[in-house]
Amino acid sequence: MLQRTHLVQMPHRADATPACLSGDLESVQKYIATGGDLERTDWDNCTALHIACAGAFSQVAQLLINKGANLNAKTRIEHTPLHLACRYGHYNIALALLAKGAEVDSRDNELNTPLHKASSNGHANLCLELVKRGATVSAVNASNYTPLHWAAYKGRTAAVEALLQVGADLTAVAARGTTSLHAASYYGHLESVVIMLKAGADPGLMDETGAKPGDVFHDGVSMSQRFEIKKLIRQRYNLMAEGFRNTRAAYVKVWMDLERKNMDQAQSALEVELLWGQLERREKELNMSKVGARDLGHAVKQLKTALETNRTTIREKNSRIKALEERLASLSVSAVTGEVVAPGRPPATVLS
Q1: I need a labelling partner for 265 at 20 to 30 A (CA). Which of 13, 248, 296, 340 fits?
Q2: How many whole angstroms separate alpha carbon 178 and alpha carbon 234?
């Protein structure tokens, strides 16, 4: 069974793993019951759990997980059990590993994560589950390949769709500046090209040699595939050009609207300034009026005081005049009678 993995060579397996090689649950149970070492490895550094995960032996894998097998043990090329479960699409085993705390972004010797393995082999459901459990969708390996690069390179259409669904970056560049669209078009994966173009991939991005997607193809890509891919990319260019024209027209409209708005605002600002100037002038006039009113009130008060003073003076003068008139009258009487009247005292005849 595991010979298909190319990781397991049957004649070289250690005694710890033969039951796992056949998926014999009962034999594994007996091995554990007699104190068997769950972490014993073969020449490839594979544990029993590695073999169960690669071989789709769900019951054996679950038993080993429950018994405390190391979930993050690494093979000679640093594959964890989760790497193998994701590589071969063993969904339930992968979930069991994740549920018990397997490292979701563990790296092998080429820095591939379990998500790289799931995407390169087209296991879309596992891709979604890994991202849901915290896998880094934009993780890069030693060649700067993201999981999307691997899916595009292999033509794994479902995985491409799944990765785009969870936010994979179409502009990420791998070694030599290639995008995922470069990879899909180079190997003639038409459906993947269609999906990425619809998702907004830019066919104008160039690699380090200056080649764009659709410029260079693998020798194994047929002429009809090349024609279709070139046609799709040309259509995308036309749509982008139309979109640019529409965007430019929309931008010009927005700019003109903004200019009109600015002019309206400037006019409004001028009107506000004029009104403000009028208000300031009115306030100055009002203040001057208030000052004038205060001055006028003061003047009136002074005038009233002066009038009162004058009235007092007039009364005093009238009193003095009256006294003088009385004095004059008394002097006139004394002149007729011949009596001498003391100053300030009226004659006796006047008093009688």
Answers
A1: 248
A2: 19
Placement of tokens 């380090």 in the chain: 208
Query: Which CATH code, of 2.40.50.140, 2.40.30.20, 1.25.40.20, 2.40.170.20, is assigned to 1-103?
Result: 1.25.40.20
Cα–Cα–Cα angle for 158, 212, 170, rounded to 5 degrees: 40
Interatomic CA distance for residues 9 and 233, integer angstroms: 46
Q: Where are the alpha helices (H) located in the chain, listed in sequence order?
A: 18-22, 25-33, 48-54, 58-66, 81-87, 91-99, 114-120, 124-132, 147-154, 157-165, 180-186, 190-198, 223-337, 348-351
Q: Helix/strand/coil (H, E, C) string of 13-29? A: CCCCCHHHHHCCHHHHH
Q: How far apart are CA 84 and CA 66, in angstroms?
A: 18
Which amino acid appears at position 197 of this protein? L
Domain boundaries for CATH 1.25.40.20 within the chain = 1-103, 143-246
DSSP helix/strand/coil, 102 = coil
Token pair belonging to 108: 């092998």
Question: Could you tell me the pTM of the whole model?
Answer: 0.65
Q: 143-246 sits in which CATH class?
A: mainly alpha
Contact (CB, 8 A) for 233 and 214: yes
Q: Do you know the residue count of the chain?
A: 352
